[in-house]
Amino acid sequence: MELTGAMQTALESGSVAPRWILLLSGRNRSTGATERIGFWTGDDTRTFTIDGTDWVCYAGAILGMSPPETAAGLDVRTQRVTMFAGTPAVVDAIRLYDASLAPAELHLALLDPGGHQLIGTAPAFLGYVDAAPVDEAAGTCELSLVSDVQAGTGRAALRKSAASLALRDPDDTGNDYADIAGSVPVVWGADHVGAWVVPRPGG
Predict the structure, then answer these.
(1) I want to staple 162 with a disulfide (CB 3.0 to 4.6 A). Which of 23, 80, 114, 175 is the partner?
(2) Any idea what DSSP says for residue 149?
(3) Where are the domains of the chain?
């Protein structure tokens, strides 16, 4: 997590009030439009400007969360956030909007000791909503988030298979043998049992 200079100084002084901000972008099931909604662990509903975008963040909805992991690398990280399902904003986020694979962000916000003046924000987690089961008995919803590295773990054939290319252009045969690419040995310039023969350049 990369902090601004002001945030680092405030942390070192110990005179800060840390808060967490959760940002979700989901598709409205009725209109198809992308809706943005935010939550935070502060006391009152507040608007934060993050990356040039204003987010209205509702208070009182986040009940708990797993400790954010900030390790670098290509491992898929997970983050869990427990929400109070009884607030109208949470109902919108999980009922009115399609939260499946919706972009999700978690940001650290540092405020002055009184919890009023914003010192700065820093992204702690960027990813997608993997699941959002509701516990009706407990009145909670547990968001399971996966980091955006997850987007690079799917099989290429699922994203660009021969079948999907054929839907766009029946004459596109560029991926006809993608499923076996890498599993068949290639021998340059000579017959070989079970191999494809590729002529030598200029041969």
Answers:
(1) 175
(2) G
(3) 5-152, 156-198
